[in-house]
Amino acid sequence: MKSYARFLAVAIILSSTINSSAQTCMDPSMTLSYDTTVIGSGNGLHSFTFPKYNPGSGTLMSVRLETEITLRYSYELENRENITINNYRVRVTREDEISSSVLPDPFTNLFVRTYGPFSLTSWDGTVGTGTDYVANGPMYVMNHTKATQTVYNTADYLGNGTVNFDYLSTTYSSVLGSVNYTFNATAQDTIKFRLIYTYCPTFFLKSDISSFNAIKSDEKNIDLHWITQNEKKDRVYEIQISNDGRNFERVDRRIAEPDATSTGTYRYTYSYEPANAGSKLIFRLKQIEKDGTVKYSAIRIIDNKKAQHSSLRIYPSPARQQTQLIFDNKKRSNYKVELFNMNGMLVKTFEANNALTARLSGLEQFTPGMYFIKATNRNTHEVLTNRLLIQ
User: Fold this and answer.
1) pLDDT for residue 360 is more than 50
2) For residue 9, what is the domain's CATH number?
3) Are 175 and 321 members of one domain?
4) Measured in Å, how far apart are the chain's first and last C-alpha atoms?
């Protein structure tokens, strides 16, 4: 009988290991591991939930799924033929399947073990005893047997929220040698399921970059803004993009331009065709000093799929003193709303709780011009954006 249960990972292990792909990780890579253990009857459906990877910790290089199975098994076999059968065998099959929206294909594992042959004499009329009967177990069909799968497209594992996996375990037996017999079996399994993030620690620009934002301004353009303190005129910023969170490529460069207060304000618009882009667009900044020292910013993620199906409506726009925000959601939710100016500076933030709409007031205090609004659903982590013109 199948059972359904839901488990949250409770164990976290942080360790250091040498990365086999040394050319992609300047320093020794690190691993962050979540695991949980369930005990069942050999057949069950379990749901496991793990936190997503925080990209502020470094560049996520790979995600490894690991399952460790211990299967104990017992059986009774009795011959019902009127003749001796010399080649009875018991074949135990174990199938495990892990599926998830973050996996391109289900992760499957098949394990088969055969016991025998057994020579059982003709049926003697007595159940559960005699030379026509054999019983074995409990025995270990699988003893801490491991199976792993590594995922290198890590985009769906980045950010806030969780990743969910459905784990289906199936154990069954077949008897070979005859068709006239009685057979009973019992099983107990222990499943340890582990999610391992392998990442490269990076040096983030917290001391210099005070703000870095990526906002989808329309269906084909993403506006990047960053502001720096203690800016140096011989510094270079390289804008990088990735579809998988692991492999980044340069799309443009900006030479540092500090003002009189050693502050730098930068803007870059990335244009693309949505049909040719991946489900996620991931941006980061590479800071290059005059002496060649390199540091990386934290990443910013644009969810291309969600953006195509979600919208934030604003009325009126242009606006003078206030405007109404209409969230693209038929269900009430909690939102964090942020207002950015054209330089990417956060100028206002407020909460909209249990809301389908929200009123944005006090706009007369801001300099007339174009602004960006970003609304983050506190429950689903979905991000809605739009532009607002203040007159």
Assistant:
1) yes
2) 2.60.120
3) no
4) 66
| pLDDT value of residue 159 | 84
Residue 60: strand pairing partners: 199
Torsion-angle region of residue 164: left (phi > 0), alpha (psi -120 to 50) or beta? beta
Report the alpha-carbon distance of residue 268 to residue 342 in Å, rounded: 11
Range of the domain at 171: 4-75+94-110+139-200
Best CA proximity match to 391, nearest among 369, 371, 376: 369
DSSP H/E element including 306 = helix 304-309
Residues 71, 223: Cα–Cα separation, whole Å: 54
Give the pLDDT of residue 165. 92
Residues 100 and 156 placed together within one structural domain of the fold = yes
Q: Which amino acid is at 236?
A: V
Could you give the CA distance from residue 178 to residue 382 in angstroms, rounded to a whole number?
59
How crowded is residue 357: how many other Cβ atoms within 10 Å of its Cβ? 12
Verify that 234 and 346 share a domain, yes or no.
no
Q: What is the DSSP letter of 219?
A: T
Strands 44-51 and 4-8, how do they pair? Answer: parallel
Q: Whole-prediction pTM value? A: 0.61
* CATH number of the domain where residue 286 is located: 2.60.40.10
* 380 Ramachandran zone, left/alpha/beta (phi>0; psi -120 to 50): alpha
Nearest by Cα to 64 from 26, 23, 6, 13:
13
Number of domains in the chain: 3
CA 210 – CA 236 distance, rounded (Å): 17
So what's the pLDDT on residue 75? 96
Q: Which of 56, 46, 58, 14 is nearest to 33 (CA)?
A: 14
Spatial CA neighbour of 160 closest among 279, 281, 300, 353: 300
Lowest mean pLDDT among 109-113, 179-183, 377-381: 377-381
Model confidence pLDDT, tens digit, residues 278-288: 668 889 898 88
What order of strands is seen across the sheet that includes strand 59-79? 11-17, 29-40, 181-200, 59-79, 133-151
Q: Where are the beta strands (DSSP E) in 121-263?
A: 133-151, 162-176, 181-200, 209-218, 221-228, 236-242, 249-255
